[in-house]
Design a protein that fits this description.
Length: 222
């Protein structure tokens, strides 16, 4: 198992582990063991943020802080981390309890996104920041390059700016439904601007659902 896992990590992250243990832990869900990915996810989230901020700072030397923040926030969401995880084949190496497997945790954005961050944390512990930086730039490369010259506007920010420009109330977000198991929840959120207009959308996290609802409301507002 460890030899095969080491081969995959070397292929996926560009580094052959000196210590396989943190990588095994990064791939272990809480339904499988107490020693799971959560602490490594905490670390990896910060390492990813630093590596991405440094990269964007270099790539876009003339952009102000606000534009760089928009780019960063778009690139480190749970959904993007999950998409990167899928592209690397992370799901095949997850260690899940039976109930989590039955509930579809192997394809959950929440789980895959968290595990991707945990793997970055494990890589940082095993090989340092240079290796983590290189892995992030390889795995996220196309996503950064296809953003274009203009920083993307986050839907919630765009909706707030629309409301201010049209002298409308600040957008409100309300959770109208939550379903699914703890590790793979589904949220339905309603976004509204007073009595003017509203839209609902779903997501695997409250933040994702709010973002989708804001985007849907912007479409309605034209």
């Amino acid at each position: 198992m460890s030899a095969g896992l080491s081969d995959w990590i070397e292929q996926a992250l560009g580094h052959r582990p000196a210590d396989i243990a943190p990588f095994e832990r990064a791939l272990t869900h809480g339904s499988q063991a107490a020693a799971n990915y959560e602490r490594l996810e905490f670390l990896g989230d910060r390492v990813l943020g630093l590596a991405m901020a440094e990269w964007l700072f270099t790539l876009f030397p003339n952009e102000p802080e606000g534009a760089l923040s928009k780019r960063l926030n778009t690139l480190v969401t749970g959904a993007v981390c999950a998409d990167v995880a899928r592209s690397l084949g992370v799901a095949e190496h997850l260690k899940l309890g039976k109930q989590a497997r039955d509930d579809g945790a192997r394809d959950s954005d929440n789980v895959l996104g968290d595990v991707m961050e945990a793997l970055i944390g494990a890589l940082y512990l095993d090989a340092g920041l240079d290796a983590a930086r290189a892995a992030v730039r390889t795995a996220w490369g196309d996503r950064v390059r296809t953003q274009g010259s203009a920083a993307p506007q986050h839907p919630k920010s765009a909706l707030q700016e629309w409301a201010a420009a049209h002298n409308r109330r600040t957008p409100m977000y309300e959770i109208v439904d939550r379903s699914g198991p703890h590790h793979a929840p589904r949220f339905t959120v309603k976004a509204s601007i007073g009595a003017l207009a509203e839209a609902t959308a779903e997501g695997s996290s409250k933040q994702e659902a709010e973002t989708a609802a804001a985007a849907a409301l912007l479409v309605k507002l034209g």
